[in-house]
Amino acid sequence: MSNLADKTVVIIGGSSGIGLRVAELAAQQSARLVIAGRNPERLLAANARLKSLGASVESHQIDAHNHSALAAWFDTLPHFHHLVSMVGDVMGGGFLQADMAEIRRVMESKFFTNVRIGQLAASKLHQGGSMVFTSGTGGRAQHACASYVGNLGINALVQGLAAELAPKARVNAVSPTWTLTPFWRDMPPAQLTQIKARFEQDIPLQRLASIDELASAYLFLLQNDFITGQHIAVDGGIMLGS
């Protein structure tokens, strides 16, 4: 397992939740951090939090879904060792119920934006570097149609990029199931409680993952130099009974 000391780690979506915890864990190994996010207040708070831990960190406000702005931002970045993308919107509902505009929105976020991130990051990676994307698990197409297809797309993207970038760099993904994180901050509390109870019943381990359990999977993939083209499901075995 390689160490992240003095390695530059770029985290898109690193201002809160799992992405911020990945940044904190990388900072514990003395990584140099570049975090990006859409919300200026959360980005400022994350920057202050990481600096309070002694981290070397730069923060950038960027909406990754704006591909022109994304490309311009990548142009400003120096070469780096690792990239983590937390990017990807979600939705519920099957194909017959979902609005086409909503399906396109989620697919654009989950799949096409990450394709563009992969393209732009490839030329910035140092030899021996890596990318880790965020896929997902725990649902079926009839319950979350665009999210499900988007997750399949991420897994295919990981395989394709891994083959194209080898042996220079590695590409993998983490696939969490539904987890109670700040991502859901705008959801009504009663709905959150209902979803949490359902997943705790469906997951064989009878509980949700902690943010640390998810974040540590990203760190594992950043550091294990012999894993590429894979997606690790951190889901408590939820698909075993499906």
Question: What would you note in describing this structure?
Answer:
The structure is a single chain. The protein is an alpha/beta fold and 242 residues long. The protein has one domain: Rossmann fold (3-Layer(aba) Sandwich), CATH 3.40.50.720. The protein is 44% helix and 19% strand. The chain is built from seven helices and seven strands; from the N terminus they run E-H-E-H-E-H-E-H-E-H-E-H-H-E. Strands 3-2-1-4-5-6-7 form a seven-stranded parallel sheet, with helices on both faces. Helix 1 crosses helix 7, helix 3 runs parallel beside helix 4 and helix 4 packs parallel to helix 5. The longest helix is centred in the middle third of the chain and has 23 residues. The protein is globular and about 45 Å long. The model has no long low-confidence stretch (mean pLDDT 94).
